[in-house]
């Protein structure tokens, strides 16, 4: 392969006695959008959590840009440009949008750079600029998702792990979020997208993997996966 | 009560009003000794002392969101460090303060390091155990004077002037309380303060944005321990005698109560909590042994009707 940014080999994790990931392997090519599909409880979120260091891998390796990052702590991984936007957005209620964005650049000391990045976020999401000094608990679901993505942009990501960005959003908002994901990708960010909404994800992605009870069962080009009716029905739902 | 404090909160929002109130309060606090009996001074000194302890615990509980049921242990470490160094080794009181700071910081590291990875309820139990261990160790060691503790701790002097009257200690503790407020305020609005806030709200999200949660919590623990340690140093020389019974579990609970009652994480709230803690039992001395019962009932009522504490929460 030409330019692999992330390589997962035989990754296994346990939550207590529960064997959440049973040895999965996959790769993400730099500059692509790769999607991880599957039903509830298939292990999609766990995979992302293991990659970003929030969950410890019990075996297997995670190689990011040629470096083995297995077992590194989450806050160190962030510094390498591998950023996780967790499920449920995890917006800090009671803080303003600006304060939430500042969290994204917490590890950054350069104020000018912070300002530059924040301007970029506000260019991408004009609505966040309008509401920048408002308490983020008054944001709608879509705006919260934008804020979560905006916050990750503050870290200057190379590889973005997005966990269910479409969750609980109205269809037109889903389209809007996906457009942003595409735009980020065009700006050079590699994206690993976890989705339950397979149709939306496959439309966007270059490549897809389907997870079932902690294992990868199918993989292929997004276009191929999309056309295979049986796959869509059996694993992805309608 | 709730309405009144909300209105008060509204009025206090502008910075100008706040500064004005602060100056008036500081002036009143400075002038109290001019027109008070020794009894009032004794009580008020105790108030400032608890303000410092509560603000210290507030860093751990209010800022970092960690439940600590053994805070009296740090206070004990400070008090015993000063007590032992001055009475056994004849060290000057002022020189014992940096030593006490180191000792209490180490105690904070010792208990925090291995336990801060635990979830908060387990942490509470470990800290409770730690508090009791410190007290029992103090009770059984020879150097700490065993069950009878240390007596005859020498009163400190500054530039040849000996602090030996209650009014001297009143000003010392007032100064300490003001210093504690200042440090708390600066910490709350620092980078570390924001990190505490993020970790308190959501550990995973904070970690995913590059904050080392264990280190950040450990900082809170160590800084809180230092507050307790320094308060302990001055407590030892004011009382001139310390015994293990001063540092019982009830002491830890009382300090925690002050923090929760006034409003966790809010400096004015914590100060009010400390006032309530000390003043209530004094005001209702007439009730005799019933007063602690009444105190408990009043606190239950406050917690039921205003669980966020007396001080109003920040609105936006």
Strand content of chain A: 25-35%
How many individual β-strands of chain B?
2
Instruction: Give, in order, the helices and strands of chain B.
Output: HHHHHHEEHHHHHHH
End-to-end gap of chain A:
33 Å
Shape assignment of chain A: globular
Describe the structure in your own words.
The complex is a heterodimer of chains A (238) and B (316). With 238 residues, chain A is of the alpha/beta class. Chain A has a domain at 4-89 and 158-236: P-loop containing nucleotide triphosphate hydrolases (Rossmann fold), CATH 3.40.50.300. Chain A has helices at residues 44-51, 74-78, 97-104, 111-124, 126-130, 141-153, 171-186, 198-204, 222-227, 229-236, and strands at 4-15, 18-29, 33-38, 59-64, 67-68, 82-85, 159-163, 190-195, 207-212, 215-221. In chain A, the strands form two sheets. Chain A has a six-stranded mixed beta sheet with strand order 6-7-8-3-9-10, with helices on both faces. A four-stranded antiparallel beta sheet of chain A has the order 2-1-4-5, covered by helices on one side. Chain A is globular and about 45 Å long. The mean pLDDT of chain A is 88. With 316 residues, chain B is mainly alpha-helical. In chain B, strands 1-2 form a two-stranded antiparallel ribbon. In chain B, helix 4 (72-89) packs parallel to helix 6 and helix 5 (93-115) runs antiparallel to helix 10 (213-239). Chain A binds chain B through residues 52-54, 73-75, 78-79, 83-86, 90, 92-96, 99, 102-104, 106-107, 134-135, 151, 155, and chain B through 191, 194-195, 197-198, 201-202, 204-213, 314, 316.
Question: What characteristics describe this protein?
Answer:
heterodimer; A: 238 residues; alpha/beta; Rossmann fold; 6-stranded mixed β-sheet; 4-stranded antiparallel β-sheet; B: 316 residues; mainly alpha; two-stranded antiparallel sheet; 13 helices; 2 strands; 72% helix; globular
């Amino acid at each position: 392969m030409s330019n692999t940014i992330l390589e997962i080999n035989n990754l296994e994790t346990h939550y207590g006695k529960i064997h959440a990931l049973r040895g999965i392997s996959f790769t993400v090519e730099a500059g692509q959008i790769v999607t991880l599909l599957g039903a509830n409880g298939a292990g999609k979120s766990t995979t992302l959590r293991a990659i970003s260091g929030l969950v410890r891998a019990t075996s297997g390796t995670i190689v990011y840009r040629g470096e083995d990052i297995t077992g590194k702590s989450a806050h160190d991984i962030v510094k390498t440009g591998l950023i996780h936007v967790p499920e449920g957005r995890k917006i800090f209620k009671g803080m303003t949008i600006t304060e939430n964005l500042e969290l994204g650049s917490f590890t950054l000391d350069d104020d000018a750079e912070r300002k530059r990045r924040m301007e970029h976020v506000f260019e991408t999401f004009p609505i966040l600029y309008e509401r920048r000094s408002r308490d983020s608990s008054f944001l709608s679901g879509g705006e919260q998702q934008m804020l979560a993505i905006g916050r990750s942009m503050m870290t200057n990501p190379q590889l973005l792990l997005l966990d269910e960005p479409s969750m609980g959003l109205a269809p037109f908002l889903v389209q809007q979020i996906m457009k942003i994901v595409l735009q980020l990708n065009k700006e050079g960010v590699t994206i690993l997208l976890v989705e339950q909404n397979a149709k939306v994800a496959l439309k966007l992605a270059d490549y897809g993997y389907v997870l079932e009870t902690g294992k990868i069962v199918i993989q292929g080009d997004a276009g191929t996966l999309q056309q295979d009716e049986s796959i869509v029905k059996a694993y992805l739902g309608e | 009560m709730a309405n009144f404090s909300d209105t008060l909160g509204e009025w206090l929002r502008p910075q100008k009003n706040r500064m004005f109130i602060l100056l008036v309060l500081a002036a009143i606090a400075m002038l109290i000794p001019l027109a008070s009996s020794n009894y009032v001074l004794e009580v008020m000194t105790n108030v400032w002392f608890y303000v410092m302890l509560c603000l210290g615990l507030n860093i751990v509980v209010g800022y970092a969101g960690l439940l600590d049921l053994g805070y009296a242990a740090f206070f004990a470490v400070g008090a015993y460090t000063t007590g032992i160094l001055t009475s056994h080794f004849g060290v000057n009181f002022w020189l014992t303060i940096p030593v006490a700071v180191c000792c209490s910081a180490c105690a904070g590291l010792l208990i925090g390091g291995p336990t801060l990875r635990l979830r908060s309820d387990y942490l509470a139990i470990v800290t409770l155990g730690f508090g009791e261990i410190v007290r029992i160790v103090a009770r059984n060691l020879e150097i700490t004077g065993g069950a009878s503790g240390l007596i005859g701790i020498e009163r400190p002097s500054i530039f040849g002037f000996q602090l030996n009257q209650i009014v001297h200690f009143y000003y010392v503790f007032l100064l300490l309380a003001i210093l504690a407020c200042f440090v708390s305020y600066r910490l709350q609005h620092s980078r570390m303060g924001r990190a505490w806030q993020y970790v308190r709200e959501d550990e995973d999200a904070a970690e995913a944005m590059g904050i080392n949660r264990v280190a950040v919590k450990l900082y809170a623990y160590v800084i809180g321990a230092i507050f307790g340690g320094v308060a302990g140093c001055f407590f030892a020389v004011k009382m001139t005698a310390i015994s293990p019974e001063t540092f019982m579990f009830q002491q830890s609970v009382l300090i925690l109560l002050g923090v929760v009652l006034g409003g966790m994480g809010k400096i004015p709230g914590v100060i009010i909590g400390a006032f309530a803690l000390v003043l209530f039992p004094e005001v209702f001395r007439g009730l005799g042994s019933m007063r602690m019962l009444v105190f408990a009932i009043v606190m239950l009522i406050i917690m039921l009707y205003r669980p966020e504490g007396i001080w109003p929460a920040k609105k936006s």
